[in-house]
């Protein structure tokens, strides 16, 4: 598959209310390209609540149910169950941020995953509560400034892909807005499978991370090239490193993580000691996932 | 028609099955549990064609049935007490989304301390949300109202969710003889599922994005209120039709017992109305002419019907099984506000009793009635509008 093979139909329309350089509209465009008219989106509170634009208009061309923060996977499972009973074929997608996935919505997500509800959960991870003004979440990385961690977050990022793998669901994948074809392939693969599918989309936010809106893709790519974010797929407990991340299995080919960190204002005051600590955590993460890979 | 001896909870399960509900989702909580247990048994034995979503919390239970209902099928959930409080966010969400669905609420005390006996704080705490709320007095009424609620909530004049309240243990776990209608009767009574909109693949309908027009948003909320107003007529029509089919007409929003020639009224809702009936027979033997006005619907609040019946009486006692702390009992508050608006000056007393499941029997109501008559005739008005029972 190449960019030329992708459908031309637009699902993100003029009039949406996204900030310049928003990674979420990129992600939504790829969802449209991957699933098109087959998708119903269930969207909890978050940036995409705003991005959709104002009623009675809409900046997105999907069927969408906006729902309360902690309810999305349960609502989506209800929709999927009803559609199956009605014999209507399609894909129900939860499009949720890191808060709605890993924090307030975590019990609901875990419950739906344990029941193997027939939905796709996409976690659009911009690594903080951006919609309410950049507050820390459990997916904010260590050392990052937010408006509730003025001196940098002291805790590490929760490892959602491995947590979701532990649910024994048929499909877990990570993705990045810098690698649309990889994300689209993963969405299509997920849509072809029955049961609960989890895709964790890394989504650098210029507003919250403090970088220029023109650099979103670059920042997302640097996360891969430094090995700080790893593209992978997991089926039946086995991890496969996806092609864009494969070169970085070899640590010597990774760019120094400081190249990623120093480009973002949120890490401006990070100490060298903390950089070493983060690097150690990155190495440990790689060794964990490589142990689980085939 | 078959006559069975059923608990209130099993009545709910039979009603759900007869109403051809497609999706049920619930989380166990005493004393609601036997509703989902019975439904699961019906599903597993092939008696009922229902898809059960066995969720991890009440918040998810109402979320799941909301999703199913929005997608186009008849859906049901049941809960109680803390479970209802936990799903409170979704109680609001479903009403504002105008999605018809039905929930059974087995009314139970709220902690701490942990207490599984009945009072009405849980269900009364939902009265501002926009749901229809009907309270049952008997197990037969539980069964009938559950079936009727599907018809009422799916009526285009209403399009709101509805809950049926039944008192913990007094109804939920106590067997009574109940007439269970034949499937054909219920089928003839319940039309195909109707709802204001349905989420569909390929149809870019967006439900719930931010409004550009706040007045439109305000009107949406006001229309929830107006739809509840419109539902009064629907409730009466549906109750009459059910009466023709089964011989059981309850009077729509309210039901009366010996109200016509009464000087005084007890006004209350729920299972303890049965004890009030016994009490007024006894009070009449003692020379006090009481009647009972049962408030079946808490929402829409039947102020006009109550006034119609109460007009000209020498006094009414409103018995609330919950209290809006810092104010008074909720039924009393609604009734007093309505009467005030109509310039009615009947002496009204609010007795808050039966909280935390503390037993109130017909002898207690006799005492309350006797004391009220003495107060009104000696003093000429109600000296103390709000009293906690048992009296000191």
Q: What does this entry look like structurally?
A:
The complex is a heterodimer of chains A (294) and B (392). Chain A is α/β, with parallel strands linked by helices. Chain A has a single domain (3-291), classed as Thiamin diphosphate (ThDP)-binding fold, Pyr/PP domains (Rossmann fold). Chain A is 36% helix and 15% strand. Chain A has an eight-stranded mixed β-sheet with strand order 2-1-3-4-6-5-7-8, with helices on both faces. In chain A, helix 1 (23-35) crosses helix 7 (180-192). The longest helix of chain A is centred in the C-terminal third of the chain and has 20 residues, at 272-291. Chain A is globular, with a radius of gyration of 18 Å. The mean pLDDT of chain A is 97. Chain B is α/β, with parallel strands linked by helices and 392 residues long. Chain B has two domains: 2-246, 3-Layer(aba) Sandwich (Rossmann fold), CATH 3.40.50.970; 254-388, Rossmann fold (3-Layer(aba) Sandwich). Chain B is built from 13 helices and 16 strands. In chain B, strand 14 (315-320), helix 12 and strand 15 (348-352) form a beta-alpha-beta unit. Chain B is globular and about 70 Å long. The model of chain B has no long low-confidence stretch (mean pLDDT 97). The interface between A and B is large, with 50 and 43 residues. Strand 2 (64-67) of chain A pairs parallel with strand 9 of chain B, so a sheet runs across the interface.
